[in-house]
Design brief:
With 228 residues, this protein is of the alpha/beta class. Helices cover 49% and strands 12% of the residues. It has a six-stranded parallel sheet, sandwiched between helices.
Amino acid sequence: MKTNKVAHIFFDLDHTLWDFERNSALAFTEIFKKNDLQIDITTFLKTYIPINNFYWGKYRNNLVTKADLRYGRLNDTFTELAMQVSQEQIHNLSEDYIAHLPNNNYLFDDAQHTLEKLQQKYTLHVITNGFSEVQNLKLNNSKIDHYFRTITTSEEVGVKKPHPEIFEYALQKANAHPEQSVMIGDNIEADILGAEKFGMSSILFDGENVNDYSGKKVNQLKQLLEIL
Protein backbone atom coordinates (compact mmCIF):
# COMPACT_ATOMS: atom_id res chain seq x y z
CA MET A 1 0.00 0.00 0.00
CA LYS A 2 3.02 2.28 0.18
CA THR A 3 2.21 4.90 -2.40
CA ASN A 4 2.62 8.61 -2.87
CA LYS A 5 -1.14 8.92 -3.34
CA VAL A 6 -1.97 8.37 0.34
CA ALA A 7 -2.14 11.67 2.22
CA HIS A 8 -4.87 11.16 4.83
CA ILE A 9 -5.38 8.37 7.36
CA PHE A 10 -8.69 8.00 9.16
CA PHE A 11 -8.80 6.00 12.40
CA ASP A 12 -11.66 4.46 14.28
CA LEU A 13 -11.24 5.08 18.03
CA ASP A 14 -12.80 2.36 20.22
CA HIS A 15 -11.24 -1.10 19.84
CA THR A 16 -8.68 0.37 17.43
CA LEU A 17 -6.61 2.93 19.33
CA TRP A 18 -8.49 3.15 22.63
CA ASP A 19 -8.61 -0.17 24.53
CA PHE A 20 -12.36 -0.16 25.04
CA GLU A 21 -12.79 -3.52 26.78
CA ARG A 22 -10.07 -2.82 29.34
CA ASN A 23 -11.29 0.69 30.10
CA SER A 24 -14.91 -0.44 30.16
CA ALA A 25 -14.14 -3.19 32.70
CA LEU A 26 -12.48 -0.65 34.98
CA ALA A 27 -15.46 1.70 34.67
CA PHE A 28 -17.92 -1.05 35.59
CA THR A 29 -15.79 -2.07 38.56
CA GLU A 30 -15.90 1.52 39.81
CA ILE A 31 -19.63 2.08 39.35
CA PHE A 32 -20.62 -1.28 40.85
CA LYS A 33 -18.63 -0.37 43.95
CA LYS A 34 -20.12 3.13 44.00
CA ASN A 35 -23.65 1.76 43.74
CA ASP A 36 -23.01 -1.10 46.18
CA LEU A 37 -23.91 -3.72 43.58
CA GLN A 38 -22.48 -7.11 44.45
CA ILE A 39 -21.49 -8.86 41.24
CA ASP A 40 -18.38 -10.59 39.97
CA ILE A 41 -17.00 -8.39 37.20
CA THR A 42 -15.78 -11.35 35.12
CA THR A 43 -19.21 -13.00 35.24
CA PHE A 44 -20.89 -9.73 34.35
CA LEU A 45 -18.64 -8.97 31.39
CA LYS A 46 -18.95 -12.46 29.92
CA THR A 47 -22.68 -11.83 29.54
CA TYR A 48 -22.56 -8.09 28.90
CA ILE A 49 -20.01 -7.91 26.06
CA PRO A 50 -21.98 -9.92 23.45
CA ILE A 51 -25.19 -8.11 24.45
CA ASN A 52 -23.44 -4.76 24.09
CA ASN A 53 -22.11 -5.77 20.66
CA PHE A 54 -25.63 -6.81 19.64
CA TYR A 55 -27.05 -3.43 20.66
CA TRP A 56 -24.29 -1.54 18.88
CA GLY A 57 -25.08 -3.49 15.71
CA LYS A 58 -28.71 -2.40 16.01
CA TYR A 59 -27.62 1.17 16.79
CA ARG A 60 -25.45 1.30 13.64
CA ASN A 61 -28.49 0.30 11.61
CA ASN A 62 -30.79 2.83 13.33
CA LEU A 63 -32.90 0.10 14.93
CA VAL A 64 -32.45 1.48 18.46
CA THR A 65 -31.82 4.94 19.87
CA LYS A 66 -28.89 5.96 22.02
CA ALA A 67 -31.16 5.81 25.08
CA ASP A 68 -32.38 2.34 24.09
CA LEU A 69 -28.80 1.13 23.75
CA ARG A 70 -27.63 2.53 27.08
CA TYR A 71 -30.57 1.08 29.02
CA GLY A 72 -31.20 -2.12 27.05
CA ARG A 73 -27.69 -3.53 27.20
CA LEU A 74 -27.68 -3.34 31.01
CA ASN A 75 -31.27 -4.45 31.46
CA ASP A 76 -30.77 -7.49 29.22
CA THR A 77 -27.54 -8.41 30.99
CA PHE A 78 -29.10 -8.32 34.45
CA THR A 79 -32.08 -10.30 33.15
CA GLU A 80 -29.77 -12.93 31.67
CA LEU A 81 -27.91 -13.12 34.99
CA ALA A 82 -31.22 -13.41 36.90
CA MET A 83 -30.40 -10.33 38.95
CA GLN A 84 -33.16 -8.15 40.35
CA VAL A 85 -32.15 -4.59 39.49
CA SER A 86 -34.75 -1.82 39.36
CA GLN A 87 -35.32 0.37 36.30
CA GLU A 88 -34.23 3.39 38.30
CA GLN A 89 -30.98 1.72 39.30
CA ILE A 90 -30.31 0.65 35.71
CA HIS A 91 -30.78 4.24 34.54
CA ASN A 92 -28.42 5.42 37.30
CA LEU A 93 -25.83 2.80 36.37
CA SER A 94 -26.13 3.79 32.72
CA GLU A 95 -25.41 7.43 33.52
CA ASP A 96 -22.58 6.53 35.90
CA TYR A 97 -20.97 4.29 33.30
CA ILE A 98 -20.87 7.04 30.68
CA ALA A 99 -19.45 9.45 33.28
CA HIS A 100 -16.76 7.02 34.44
CA LEU A 101 -15.79 5.51 31.08
CA PRO A 102 -13.35 8.29 30.04
CA ASN A 103 -11.60 8.18 33.44
CA ASN A 104 -9.46 5.21 32.40
CA ASN A 105 -7.65 5.65 29.12
CA TYR A 106 -5.49 2.67 28.28
CA LEU A 107 -4.47 2.60 24.63
CA PHE A 108 -3.42 -0.43 22.63
CA ASP A 109 0.29 -1.18 22.54
CA ASP A 110 2.35 1.20 20.40
CA ALA A 111 -0.59 3.56 19.75
CA GLN A 112 1.31 6.70 20.73
CA HIS A 113 4.47 5.69 18.89
CA THR A 114 2.56 4.70 15.76
CA LEU A 115 0.56 7.92 15.67
CA GLU A 116 3.72 9.96 16.23
CA LYS A 117 5.45 8.32 13.27
CA LEU A 118 2.44 8.42 10.95
CA GLN A 119 1.82 12.08 11.73
CA GLN A 120 5.22 12.89 10.23
CA LYS A 121 4.06 11.60 6.83
CA TYR A 122 0.27 11.86 6.77
CA THR A 123 -2.60 13.98 8.03
CA LEU A 124 -4.51 11.98 10.64
CA HIS A 125 -8.22 12.01 11.42
CA VAL A 126 -10.83 10.11 13.44
CA ILE A 127 -14.22 8.79 12.34
CA THR A 128 -16.21 7.25 15.19
CA ASN A 129 -19.71 5.96 15.86
CA GLY A 130 -19.24 6.64 19.56
CA PHE A 131 -21.12 9.32 21.44
CA SER A 132 -19.62 12.78 20.89
CA GLU A 133 -19.42 13.87 24.52
CA VAL A 134 -17.56 10.69 25.49
CA GLN A 135 -15.28 10.34 22.47
CA ASN A 136 -13.82 13.81 22.83
CA LEU A 137 -13.04 13.14 26.48
CA LYS A 138 -11.35 9.85 25.57
CA LEU A 139 -9.14 11.59 23.03
CA ASN A 140 -8.23 14.40 25.41
CA ASN A 141 -7.73 12.26 28.51
CA SER A 142 -5.59 9.71 26.68
CA LYS A 143 -3.50 12.59 25.30
CA ILE A 144 -3.79 11.65 21.63
CA ASP A 145 -6.16 14.41 20.50
CA HIS A 146 -3.31 16.53 19.15
CA TYR A 147 -2.43 13.93 16.51
CA PHE A 148 -5.69 14.44 14.64
CA ARG A 149 -6.59 17.28 12.31
CA THR A 150 -10.30 16.46 12.36
CA ILE A 151 -12.67 14.40 14.52
CA THR A 152 -15.95 13.24 12.97
CA THR A 153 -18.62 11.57 15.12
CA SER A 154 -21.79 9.89 13.93
CA GLU A 155 -23.88 12.17 16.16
CA GLU A 156 -22.37 15.18 14.41
CA VAL A 157 -23.29 13.80 10.98
CA GLY A 158 -26.60 12.17 11.83
CA VAL A 159 -25.65 8.78 10.35
CA LYS A 160 -23.26 6.04 11.42
CA LYS A 161 -20.58 3.98 9.75
CA PRO A 162 -20.92 2.11 7.39
CA HIS A 163 -23.30 4.69 5.83
CA PRO A 164 -21.45 6.46 3.00
CA GLU A 165 -22.66 9.85 4.17
CA ILE A 166 -20.42 9.81 7.25
CA PHE A 167 -17.36 9.08 5.11
CA GLU A 168 -18.36 11.80 2.65
CA TYR A 169 -18.80 14.28 5.52
CA ALA A 170 -15.49 13.32 7.16
CA LEU A 171 -13.52 13.63 3.93
CA GLN A 172 -15.07 16.99 3.09
CA LYS A 173 -14.22 18.18 6.59
CA ALA A 174 -10.65 16.98 6.09
CA ASN A 175 -10.42 18.36 2.53
CA ALA A 176 -9.44 14.86 1.40
CA HIS A 177 -10.37 12.65 -1.53
CA PRO A 178 -11.23 8.92 -1.29
CA GLU A 179 -8.36 7.80 -3.53
CA GLN A 180 -5.81 9.47 -1.24
CA SER A 181 -7.36 8.24 2.01
CA VAL A 182 -7.08 5.09 4.14
CA MET A 183 -9.51 3.93 6.86
CA ILE A 184 -8.18 1.90 9.79
CA GLY A 185 -10.61 0.19 12.15
CA ASP A 186 -11.59 -3.01 13.92
CA ASN A 187 -15.09 -3.52 12.55
CA ILE A 188 -15.33 -5.21 9.16
CA GLU A 189 -18.86 -3.97 8.44
CA ALA A 190 -18.61 -0.42 9.76
CA ASP A 191 -15.00 0.51 9.09
CA ILE A 192 -13.69 -1.72 6.31
CA LEU A 193 -16.66 -2.38 4.05
CA GLY A 194 -18.07 1.07 4.72
CA ALA A 195 -14.86 2.78 3.64
CA GLU A 196 -14.30 0.54 0.63
CA LYS A 197 -17.84 1.13 -0.60
CA PHE A 198 -17.07 4.84 -0.53
CA GLY A 199 -13.89 4.32 -2.56
CA MET A 200 -11.30 4.43 0.21
CA SER A 201 -8.57 1.91 0.96
CA SER A 202 -8.77 0.20 4.33
CA ILE A 203 -6.77 -1.76 6.87
CA LEU A 204 -8.39 -3.98 9.49
CA PHE A 205 -6.99 -3.79 13.01
CA ASP A 206 -7.53 -7.29 14.43
CA GLY A 207 -5.80 -7.19 17.78
CA GLU A 208 -7.05 -10.62 18.86
CA ASN A 209 -6.47 -12.16 15.42
CA VAL A 210 -9.99 -13.59 15.34
CA ASN A 211 -11.26 -12.37 11.96
CA ASP A 212 -10.98 -14.54 8.87
CA TYR A 213 -10.30 -11.60 6.60
CA SER A 214 -8.33 -11.76 3.37
CA GLY A 215 -7.72 -8.04 2.93
CA LYS A 216 -5.08 -5.80 4.46
CA LYS A 217 -4.87 -6.58 8.18
CA VAL A 218 -2.62 -5.87 11.16
CA ASN A 219 -2.61 -7.43 14.61
CA GLN A 220 -0.40 -4.74 16.15
CA LEU A 221 -0.59 -1.03 15.49
CA LYS A 222 3.14 -0.75 14.90
CA GLN A 223 2.71 -2.97 11.82
CA LEU A 224 1.03 -0.01 10.15
CA LEU A 225 4.45 1.61 9.87
CA GLU A 226 5.58 -1.25 7.63
CA ILE A 227 2.74 -0.93 5.11
CA LEU A 228 1.99 2.78 5.08
